[in-house]
Amino acid sequence: MDQEQQPESKPTPFYRMIMDDFMLLLFLGVTIYAIFYLLWGVMELSNLPGIPDEIKQNLLK
Amino acid sequence: MFRTCDITGFKVDLQSEKLIRYNAVFAVISLLFAVVAALLLVLTRYQPIHLLGAEWYYRLVTFHGLNALIFWIIFFEIAGLYFGSTVILNTRFCSPKTGWWAFALMVAGLVITNIIILMGKADVMLTSYTPLKAHPLYYLGIILFAVGALIGVILFFGNLMIARREKTYGETMPLVAYGLMTAAIIAVITLATGAIIYIPTFLWSLGLINNIDPAMYKLIWWGLGHSSQQINVAAMVSIWYMTSFLSVGGTSINEKVSRSAFVLYILFICLASAHHLLTDPGVSSAWKVWNTSYAMYLAVLASMIHAFAVPSSFEVAQRKWGYNKGLFQWLSKAPWGNPAFSAIILAVIGFGFIGGTTGVIFGMEQTNIIVHNTIAIPGHFKGTVVIGTTLTFMGITYYLIPLIFRRKIVGFKLAQWQPWLFFIGIALLSIGMIVLGQLGVPRRHWDNTFSGGPFTHNFNPAVDFFWVITLLGGIIAFLATLIWILIVVVSVFWGPKVNGPQDMQLTISPLPPEGKPHKGFEAPGTLVLTFLFLLVFLALFFLNWKWLAATWNVN
After folding, report:
1. Interface test with B, best of A20, A37, A42, A48 (most B CBs within 10 A)
2. Residue A25 domain boundaries
3. Set of chain B residues whose Cβ sits within 8 Å of the Cβ of A32
4. What's B461's DSSP letter?
């Protein structure tokens, strides 16, 4: 009986643990995308200097 | 409540089966809307016919974009996710009632959005870039659809948890389900980004917010717009593996590597959204190059792995069945009479040679400039979403009709021809559009002659020839889609019932016998085809750089 149960108690390899953990993969996927695409992009756009008032007024005429 | 499939032996949750059926039906309805609009659009852009007026042209560009890229694809994917998480994993559906709520929201979204577009209250095209403003119900419709789809994705994860807890599968998730899990994770990223941009835009359309910054809108919108197409890629590749298994008993020659490729998709593929902003001045070159080159190439690597793993799974299985002669007997003796098999092989070829090559070339900051905002870009989409995803979904439907709808395929002879016809049509359409774009023809433009405009432009005379190719391809693809819809509708509603394996028109292959150990490559034919692909890719790559170099005279 004990001998039969032995294969079940074999520890799962670390590689497979990571690969099969869909919550971890979801977290990593969201984080990488959020940092490199979204946050970085939003930061760059937020730091753009505004249009000088003179030009703005001319455009709005 | 379950039934055991007498053909595959799968345990099928009856509630899940119903949800799969209804989502698939609405996918087909959306595709019908999309292709009718597509035909009218191609007949308008072909100048000698120039069918529609400007207003209806832009209205139908919007209508076509939403029905083709959002409704058709996502309804089908939700059906696929339910199939993958319950039937393949041998488990029950976690909450059928919530599944029906999700479905109702998606249908409400489809109906509201389409009505508003056809009423002429949302001529904003799929991208709806601000400050273009549509009726609030347009945005609300999309939000309802997205919420429904997100609930569907959450239910997929719920089913996965049940399957894991109840140990309904072996040591690790089957590769097909793993690919669908990848699609679901990308869907979460996509739909969350959609919420970030569509909710404020909806409030803006109601007058509750004063301004939406156009540059910010474009950045975030493409996180939705492009990533949504990456859900397709993951779902499509999963179906490729599934079809190899069903048709010849093929399995990946290295499942670990195939799984790793799916993980690369999860981690990097959504960053490719940046190539829609390659000519935008607001974001830096560092942001553009990192997101569209260094990071995206890891996702491209994943696609190359699948592009080798899928055909090699066919080849290795075929060789084990005894088709071992020369480099390509496994291919010549393949089950070409099985429309699902031929659809998938054609999708792999079209996706790789047309969609994949142009995707990498157009996605680079330098060579993108040649074709940015030209008709080559939707030409590239035709090589990915249509010849790849749509043809794949069409192909797997030939298995779903007998296995899920329990009906025989009516007009089976026609079904055997349909994938070829669709492939030829879309290949002509796609290549025609890509060449037109390379010759400078703009996209989303009602009048190629620029009549009444402050300036005109004389295109290269070759343009006329490629417009004919584009028109011809569009008409053939339209007819092939109608044939497919007709086969599906007639089979599902009036087809003879399937009472057992004897009624199965498509093969369900057992696993092939273990072959004798041999020296050398496992899949030499696929290796040769891979090198052929790389040669074509290199030639196109070089051609585009040469073209770019010729654009400016540099001394």
Report:
1. A37
2. 13-60
3. 267-268, 271
4. T
Residue A2 lies in a domain: no
The residues that bridge with B497 in the sheet, in sequence order, are B407
Q: How many structural domains are present in chain A?
A: 1
Identify whether A48 is part of a domain.
yes
B59 neighbors B120 (Cβ within 8 angstroms): yes
Which of B157, B185, B283 is facing A45, going by the closest CB pair? B283
Q: How far apart are CA B244 and CA B352, in angstroms?
A: 17
Paired tokens of B375: 């008709």
Please judge whether B185 and A26 are an interchain contact, meaning their C-beta atoms are less than 8 angstroms apart.
yes
Question: Do the Cβ atoms of A28 and B267 come within 8 Å?
Answer: yes
Q: If you search the block for the tokens 């390379």, which residue do you land on?
A: B438
Q: Is residue A1 part of a domain?
A: no
Two tokens at A39? 């946050």
- In terms of pTM, does the model score above 0.90? yes
Tokens of B156: 């997929």
- Let me know: does B233 contact B266? Beta carbons within 8 Å: no
- pLDDT tens-place values along chain B, 555 residues long: 788 888 888 888 899 999 999 999 999 999 999 999 999 999 999 999 999 999 999 999 999 999 999 999 999 999 999 999 999 999 999 999 999 999 999 999 999 999 999 999 999 999 999 999 999 999 999 999 999 999 999 999 999 999 999 988 888 899 999 999 999 999 999 999 999 999 999 999 999 999 999 999 999 999 999 999 999 999 999 999 999 999 999 999 999 999 999 999 999 999 999 989 999 999 999 999 999 887 778 898 999 999 999 999 999 999 999 998 999 999 999 999 999 999 999 999 999 999 999 999 998 888 898 999 999 999 999 999 999 999 999 999 999 999 999 999 999 999 999 999 999 999 999 999 999 999 999 998 898 888 888 888 889 999 999 999 999 999 999 999 999 999 999 999 999 999 988 999 998 999 998 876 667 788 999 999 999 999 999 999 999 999 888 887 766
**Which of B267, B277, B280, B298 to mutate to test binding with chain A, by most A CBs within 10 Å of its CB?**
B267
H or E element, residue B3: strand B2-4
- Cβ–Cβ gap A48/B282 under 8 Å: yes
